[in-house]
Specification:
The structure is a single chain. The protein has about 220 residues and is mainly α. It has one domain. The chain contains 9 helices and no strands.
């Protein structure tokens, strides 16, 4: 009943409906741009290079974690939005900004995936959104880290998302699916993206953070 009450309160506001729609439109546009960046990167991919970490660890089969594990992660995020819908506009716009900026980065860097990478059997849906040569920087590391920054005020969610960040970051390294620079740079670039989102979507962030503070206080009680 509490969740239904929250949705009724949010969706009854014209400004909320407009911001959610804008968020979805921005997300859709960023995915289209990412698709073109993927095509360009795939056609321009050069040769693989050596990596101080990958050269010293064996390759593990991480196909299930890479696809199904990441899908479970996003299912958790969706369920979280269903439970707490107030922060949906900021989350949508932040993810869209992340994808847009990453599209720019992968267009600049055209390294091929490491030769000894784990074999991936991509699901059809996932294959439509990304290619294996879109390496810099790692979205499997950056997106969970972005979620941890968005939900930083909630200690439980912060720990869950930080754990997911480390887990998926380690996964792509163990599978030799990303170079180490792709993983470690994701933390710094994502931190910058989060603060850009806070500036560009200040009103949405303010609404979201108010909700997080309330949840944090309930947690303490």
């Amino acid at each position: 009943m509490e969740t239904l009450s929250k949705h009724k309160s949010c969706w009854s506001q014209k400004s909320y409906r407009r911001n959610v729609l804008l968020g979805f439109l921005f997300l859709a546009a960023s995915l289209v741009i990412n698709g073109f960046a993927d095509i360009y990167t795939t056609h321009r991919a050069s040769n693989p290079v050596t990596d101080v970490i990958l050269d010293n660890i064996p390759t593990f089969n991480v196909n299930f974690i890479f696809y199904q594990g990441f899908a479970i992660f996003w299912l958790f995020v969706i369920l979280l939005q269903i439970r707490e819908p107030k922060g949906l506009p900021f989350m949508l716009k932040s993810i869209a900004l992340f994808i847009l900026i990453r599209s720019f980065f992968i267009s600049l860097t055209h390294l091929a995936i490491p030769l000894d990478h784990s074999y991936l059997h991509p699901a059809r849906l996932y294959k439509r959104f990304t290619a294996q040569d879109d390496l810099f920087f790692s979205s499997h590391t950056g997106l969970p880290f972005l979620m941890s920054l968005i939900y930083w005020e909630d200690k439980r969610l912060r720990k869950i998302f930080l754990a997911a960040t480390l887990f998926f970051g380690a996964t792509v390294l163990l599978g030799h699916l990303h170079y180490s620079i792709d993983v470690f740079s994701a933390f710094f670039i994502t931190y910058g993206i989060f603060h850009i989102a806070r500036t560009f979507f200040a009103k949405d962030y303010s609404t979201h953070i108010e909700e997080e503070v309330v949840l944090a206080k309930k947690e303490l009680l």
